[in-house]
Amino acid sequence: MRAVEIKNLYFKYQNEWVLENINLEVEDGEFVAIVGPNGGGKTTLLRLMLGFLKPTEGEIKIYGKPPKEASSFMGYVPQYTSFSLDIPITVFDIVLQGRLERGKFFYSKKDKKKALEIMEKLKIKDFKDRKIKDLSGGQRQKVLIARALVSEPKIVLMDEPTSAIDPKGQKEILDLIESMQITRVVVSHDIKILLRNVDKIVYIHKKAVIHEGPKLNIPKDKHFCEVELIEFLKADECGI
């Protein structure tokens, strides 16, 4: 079963079309990057996939179900910059939120064990009792990724996961995303995401242009950055 199927999708805010005739298929386990200019519709598409918005026309299926019925399959990582830093709870409490379900008000021993396991894996267990406002940008983003993964989703959707993070934190987050063994859909303006063995690149500017991920074969001991990538892609069609 495909992870994502989007057919003939249109969406408008008031009288302005934001997305037009989007068609996309994502296979189980694929790593997909959604890129494009600011205001092009990237985040809107992600919010439609999550079920936060409803298509004006067309349909979206996540593992064969409408988004609202597939919420248990999905983990969501927002930008940490949209997360309130004034919430007076610990990092551990934030990660545990990912185990909440409708009608559930208490965490079990299994929930707490799973939270500690994922925090250990992401190397954030040592500051589980700290407040999120006391962490670096990269650490905060890892906390939100842990919250998304602790529910053991089939697919994780991320919105600008490297935004406003220092270069060291960016590398850590990109390494982590690349290593995940589940379906990943990442919305980003950061072209470095394309260096990370993506399976598909979806360029969104109202409409979608879909590319297979570039097979770069980057030598470990050689410089390779966004400039070389643009030369490699020759992406004039997308206006990059």
How does this structure look, described?
- The protein is 26% helix and 24% strand.
- The strands form two sheets. Strands 5-6-7-3-8-9 form a six-stranded mixed beta sheet. A three-stranded antiparallel beta sheet has the order 2-1-4, covered by helices on one side.
- β1 (4-13) and β2 form a beta hairpin.
- It has one domain: P-loop containing nucleotide triphosphate hydrolases (Rossmann fold, 3-Layer(aba) Sandwich), CATH 3.40.50.300.
- By secondary structure, it is an alpha/beta fold.
- The mean pLDDT is 87.
Quickly name the level 1 CATH class.
Alpha Beta
Backbone structural class: alpha/beta
Number of extended strands: 9
Quick one: CATH superfamily?
Answer: P-loop containing nucleotide triphosphate hydrolases
In the CATH hierarchy, the architecture is: 3-Layer(aba) Sandwich
Biggest pleated sheet = 6 strands, mixed
The radius of gyration is: 18 Å
Helical segment count: 6
Shape from CA axes? globular
Give a brief description.
The chain is built from six helices and nine strands, in the order E-E-E-H-E-E-H-H-H-E-H-E-E-E-H. It has helices spanning 42-50, 91-96, 109-121, 137-149, 167-179, 226-233, and strands at residues 4-13, 16-26, 31-35, 57-62, 74-77, 155-159, 183-187, 200-205, 207-212.
Q: SSE layout and pairings?
A:
Layout: E1 4-13, E2 16-26, E3 31-35, H1 42-50, E4 57-62, E5 74-77, H2 91-96, H3 109-121, H4 137-149, E6 155-159, H5 167-179, E7 183-187, E8 200-205, E9 207-212, H6 226-233
Parallel strand pairs: 3-7, 3-8, 5-6, 6-7
Antiparallel strand pairs: 1-2, 1-4, 8-9
